[in-house]
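Re: weekly structure request thread

Next one in the queue (110 aa):
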Amino acid sequence: NRICLMPVERRAFPRLDENLPVRFKVLSETNGSVAGVTSNIGGGGIAVCYLEPLEIGARILGEVDVAQTTVRFTGRTVRVEEVGLGHYEIGVEFLEIDDKSHELILSYAS
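Done, posted below.
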């Protein structure tokens, strides 16, 4: 007899693997906004594909296009993973997002 244990899902919100346009600015940097694309989105945040690593804890001011609506948010990086040579997946947790936008993402991702 074998017992197969599945990893425990720790996210509070479901995620949808989706490539959506995203623009963001790291608040501690003087550079302007940069563009990327999401690899997934959920009620708690997004994962962004980007060409450079970002510092864990960096505060982000961003916007993502969801269902023909631009959603603005403030977030912070919680994860940085190299997924290929010179390509990174940046996990961003939403810190500030208006209720209407949050509901839109929840509906879109479920």
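The mean pLDDT is 89. Helices lie at 99-109.
Next request, please.
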